[in-house]
Write a structure and sequence with these properties.
Elements (H helix, E strand, L loop, with lengths): L2 E2 L5 E2 L5 E4 L9 H12 L6 E5 L8 H16 L3 E5 L3 H9 L34
Helix pairs in contact: 1-2
């Protein structure tokens, strides 16, 4: 399972299992990917699956859906899933869909996540500092 050291990065247990996505993910691939992951972890003591997405050429919403479904599949079998190899486009899609907490990345801290673009704090001049 993944865990944090006092606000530090996610560390992986020694017995992690790897699972990689191919160059293209389609909706029709999702049930097959979930079945493959279930077969990989079924009957084994729960730990962590490291899902490598570095090979995904053009990530889209279907890719994010596949990752979310893979995470659910892993959880149903007592495992957790973390993502590695995500490029900036996939990270942006995950952020836009509000799934950054659900789809954790290996080695990233919460404060390392991308900030929402175009968002600024508005200060009301009538508020006095305390």
């Amino acid at each position: 399972m993944s865990f944090r050291d006092a606000g530090g990065p996610i560390h992986m247990a020694a017995s992690a299992t790897s699972f990689a996505l191919g160059a293209t993910v389609t909706r029709s691939n999702i049930p097959v990917l979930c079945a493959e992951l279930a077969e990989l972890v079924r009957g084994r003591a729960g730990d962590v699956v490291i899902c490598d997405v570095a090979g995904v050429v053009h990530p889209d919403v279907v890719t994010v859906e596949a990752l979310a479904r893979l995470r659910l599949t892993a959880r149903r079998h007592g495992w957790s899933l973390v993502v590695t190899g995500a490029g900036p486009h996939l990270l942006e899609l995950v952020r836009l869909l509000g799934l950054t907490d659900a789809l954790r990345q290996v080695g990233r801290q919460p404060e390392q996540r991308e900030e929402a673009g175009g968002v600024e704090e508005v200060v009301d001049g009538r508020d006095s500092p305390r």
